[in-house]
Amino acid sequence: MAEYGKKNFVLFFIDTVLFINAMTYLSVTAVITYFLNTLGASTFQISLASILVSVGTFISQPIFAKKAAGLTIKLKSFLRILSIQRIFFLFFVMTIPMLVSAGYYLAIMAFLICWGIFSFFVGSYTPFYMALFYKMVEMSQA
Q: Is the model's pLDDT at 103 over the cut of 90?
């Protein structure tokens, strides 16, 4: 159990340092709104980006909670989910110049689809984090 506790702690630390801090700069209310506005997105499309965060997270939590509850070792599955989410979004970010040169409407639609998928994966955080956090805290501390 001590070995898993160390691995879980490393996962929490690395995830916080590398990803959660970086996401503070990718604000839905500032950066993404500015990005979509610059591309010429409508008010509906800009508000849809904001809605996708809440809806994607809310809809996917029961799915990921069911998956997390059925696993004895959650770390590998959670790492796989986080890797898929982040590599997918990184791929999109790297293709932005090509999408914009192909057309602003295509870039807006591609962003909204990728943002929706990214937000869907955000729903995995709470179920997996709580299960992993529970393993990190010893019973005497609970």
A: yes
